[in-house]
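Hi support team,

I'm opening this ticket because the web form for multi-chain structure prediction keeps timing out on my end. I have pasted the exact lines I submitted so you can reproduce it. The total is 438 residues across four entries, so I didn't expect it to be a heavy job. Is there a limit I'm missing, or should I split the entries? Thanks in advance, R.K.
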Amino acid sequence: MRILLIEDDTTLGAAVRDQIASDGQSVDWVTRLDAAADAMSATSYDLLLLDLMLPDGRGIGFLKGLRTRGDVTPVIILTALDQVSDRIEGLNAGADDYLVKPFDLSELSARIGSVARRYSGNPNPILTHGPLDIDLAARSVHRDGGHVPLTAREWALFEAFLARPGQLLSKAQLEEKLYAFDAEVESNTIEVHVSRLRKKLGSAIIETERGMGYRLGKP
Amino acid sequence: MRILLIEDDTTLGAAVRDQIASDGQSVDWVTRLDAAADAMSATSYDLLLLDLMLPDGRGIGFLKGLRTRGDVTPVIILTALDQVSDRIEGLNAGADDYLVKPFDLSELSARIGSVARRYSGNPNPILTHGPLDIDLAARSVHRDGGHVPLTAREWALFEAFLARPGQLLSKAQLEEKLYAFDAEVESNTIEVHVSRLRKKLGSAIIETERGMGYRLGKP
DNA sequence: GCGAAGCTGACGGCAGCCTGAAGGGGCTCG
DNA sequence: CGAGCCCCTTCAGGCTGCCGTCAGCTTCGC
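Hello R.K., no limit was hit. The queue was backed up. Here is the completed structure from your submission:
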């Protein structure tokens, strides 16, 4: 999950960033609204953490602008204790939740988890290669709409080819990739796995360079 | 919108009741948990305002009981306890929001409006997955109309799969989700919990990819 | 046409997975 | 404060199916 933190207090910002990172999420941190707008046009975020008092304007206006433009990205507001009216305004402007400073970092995690659960589900990037649709994060391959199950070795081999599309890979290189130094194979293992991959994914997927090695075929 | 106020402080209770009524909502007010249970069996409410310290028990247990039984009615907690741990416990028990006494009555109105909007936009955010109906906010699962109780670990595991449907998750990834880095498990805990989830939810719910991990099966 | 290199079906061993059972720790209730 | 209960972890035995190996066949280069 990608999170954008918009907070000008460097101490708090660093603490929040570290907490989120330790939860395994990806964080970008900006200190100004114009930087936030730039970041959002460059990247799609799953959640915004928005401070209301920033050097170049009030966060409320920023949030209202987002909602007016139809942006539905979840927003959690971070505000100081005495700004009761801001909190009300924030909720009415379209915030999903808010946290009152000073807040406990574990509570932040709980709120992020809650929002994330509510909005779970944005798809992973899909590679296409000829008739194949490949989702690297999900480790899944689809061919003509059907799911093609790959075993661990098969996936490792396929991944090696995908990492260097079109490049020639010798059997020795592939063995290193699959067996990480220590193990010695004394047989035609690579040939066998290439054969199994071709059967599952299509015979054109991997080309043989006789005496040299293999390479990923053109789509 | 029908609101049930559960609050034993008569001064505060009356103030809250009047505020809500002046917002045009319908309120019932009880001062004990057993009275709340009676009222809820007689009437269907759209929102509960729940004090945590009551003459006949702690509101947290009451809330947990509700969620365990599959009740998804939105709950806002009202309490004098401003301990962070209590607030986290409340949110984890299934509360939708939190107000720490003393609070501003206009803020109460804003929160009620927020919860109402959240639930009117999508009245009951229920995921369906094959024969399963899943309410993420209430942490409840129904199968063939019956409630399936999940333990904490089971839910955490299930949630990890739901967050990335169809994606392969390694045991290491799942352990990180369940144990947040600090604790180390030296055994087949994940396997055991997967086994229990399958027994409760159906064996097809989670697929094994030997040597790689698990993924949520197709509905 | 010949040798070398690659392909692929078959198969046994074993790593990896499943699951029932037991023990311990935390929580609730009397 | 003890009893009872539930949940989590650990362990062990059994099972599944992936992987490495081999053999026989095909393809390629010369």
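A quick check on our side: Residues 105-118 of chain A form the longest helix (14 residues). Let us know if the file doesn't open in your viewer.
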